[in-house]
Amino acid sequence: MVKNILITGASGLIGTRLTTLLHEKGYRIAHLSRTTRSGNAQTFLWNVDKNQLDPAAIQPAHAIIHLAGAGVADKPWTKERKNEIISSRTLSTRLLYDELKKGNHQVRTFISASGIGYYGSDDSENFFTENDKTGDDFLADVVRRWEEAADQIAELGIRVVKIRIGVVLSEKGGALQEIMRPVKFYAGAPLGSGKQYVSWIHLDDLCNLFIKTLEDETLQGVYNAVAPHPVTNKELTYAIAKALNKPLIIPAVPSFVLKLLLGEMADLVLKGAKVSGQKIQSAGFRFKFEHIQDALKDLLVK
Ligand SMILES: NC(=O)c1ccc[n+]([C@@H]2O[C@H](COP(=O)([O-])OP(=O)(O)OC[C@H]3O[C@@H](n4cnc5c(N)ncnc54)[C@H](OP(=O)(O)O)[C@@H]3O)[C@@H](O)[C@H]2O)c1
User: Fold this and answer.
1) Is the pLDDT of residue 1 over 70?
2) Which residue in 291, 174, 298, 302 sits closest to 236, CA to CA?
3) Measured between alpha carbons, how far is 226 from 229 in angstroms, rounded to an integer?
4) Average pLDDT of the segment spanning 77-92
5) 151: domain CATH number?
6) CA distance 138 to 118
7) Which of 11, 21, 52, 96 has the most ligand 1 atoms within 8 A of CB, as the residue to mutate?
8) Is the residue at 116 inside a domain?
9) Total structural domains within the chain
10) How far is the CA of 12 from the centre of ligand 1 (A)?
């Protein structure tokens, strides 16, 4: 039987690639979006702020993959923006819950994006695992509330998987593009101490990990989505410079400069955590890109 998958936020970096890979595997894909411009699948509309969702999106779906959320690095963290970052995740999940609770559907699996921001930050050499507790900064609070909203869906008897995504590396956008830009113009440098860990994952590995949790119905609960070998910010910057064949001239960008420029948002680059991807590997998932050099070679060296 061909399975119908509904993806929210599918017009973004992860959803676009995931849609392509699921199509290649023969799945029927629909998108739930704020606009009809969401790309290569049938698109249904919702408006999270107005609590509106087209019920026709849910009825044919066998599984929902929930990626929607206002970008955490897209705009300055004003009070208003922080509220949007939270509500676009929690209220959207609640809207899906309310529709699923009505019962007129065949959804058996709900897979929610989550983030390794859950753990807060720590420069130590210890790996965070799924059993560790949440951190105490803004992003940790966002992720905790997002996961709590997803957990409510499990109360409806639906299998729920939460994927704590690391820093996604892609040639199409996201963190890699931001780090690469100054390196290309000979202005790249480690940020702050450079010792903060970047627990990264190649976009294709991430999408295949989503597909693994979709297809393996024994999996439920939380899984970190990070490659087995995290690197420090300094190691990542040097690896990118090497892959691009560009020298690094500036020794480092001091933390205070980034804090002046970005305010609290500087946390995104100055803080990090060394996160373990062992749990999903123990469940049988195999990463194609385990080491940063292999991922960057695939993404940057054409
Ligand atoms: N990329 C990463 O490194 C990373 C790391 C950790 C966690 N994640 C999480 O994984 C999810 C997908 O990541 P991504 O990189 O694909 O994100 P993305 O490129 O920013 O796409 C997210 C999508 O969410 C929808 N969206 C944006 N603002 C919204 C709002 N205010 N209300 C409702 N929907 C909204 C949009 O889809 P429509 O315009 O079609 O509605 C957008 O295309 C996100 O929730 C993100 O936080 C990503």
Assistant:
1) no
2) 291
3) 8
4) 96
5) 3.40.50.720
6) 9
7) 11
8) yes
9) 1
10) 6
